[in-house]
């Protein structure tokens, strides 16, 4: 009886260790993808905005691009809207593009986002993620913003909402203009 219990404990321990190894390997893979986005060339994408217009990142080469990943269900993302509107208004005629990529899913996402854009007076383009772009950037939490330089490399990453976000982002953009 006692040996059977010991054998069972060993089996549970082996299963636990295998699960831990699998989880660790998956985590490393996610980190590697994130490192590519942070240290190298920004992964290219073509996504539709809320009106169906296609936007391709590589076609914006030569501009500084701010790409923010967000969602309508995220309170800090809503807090960031006025700050990003400030950035958009300040730089819209200065070779800078602001893009928001929504991680919202389900039914008629475009209609839901259109309503949200109008209600919150978002002035910059809002794109709909294809469930692959956020993975290629290693997005684990929202909001997260990537500032991409004129050559298409990620120059800066801002995670979460912070007071005076527009000033912090403006400082980073100014360094790239």
- Terminus-to-terminus distance: 74 Å
Low-confidence stretches: 12-38
CATH topology: Glutaredoxin
The CATH architecture category equals 3-Layer(aba) Sandwich
Note the main sheet.
Answer: 5 strands, mixed
Order of helices and strands: HEEEHEHEHEEH
Helix content: 40-55%
Strand proportion, as a percent range, falls in 15-25%
Average pLDDT confidence is 83
For the record, the count of structural domains works out to: 1
Categorize the overall geometry.
Answer: globular
Q: Say which CATH homologous superfamily is assigned.
A: Glutaredoxin
Total helical elements = 5
Count of distinct strands: 7
Order of adjacent strands in the largest pleated sheet: 5-4-3-6-7
- Class by SSE composition: alpha/beta
**Rg, Å, rounded:** 20 Å
What does this structure look like?
By secondary structure, the protein is α/β, with parallel strands linked by helices. It has a single domain (38-176), classed as Glutaredoxin (3-Layer(aba) Sandwich), CATH 3.40.30.10. The protein is built from five helices and seven strands; from the N terminus they run αβββαβαβαββα. The longest helix has 38 residues, at 2-39. It starts with a helix and ends with a helix.
Give the tags.
177 residues; alpha/beta; Glutaredoxin; 5-stranded mixed beta sheet; two-stranded antiparallel ribbon; 5 helices
Summarize the structure.
The chain has helices at residues 2-39, 75-91, 109-119, 133-136, 165-176, and strands spanning 46-48, 54-56, 64-70, 96-102, 126-128, 144-148, 154-159.
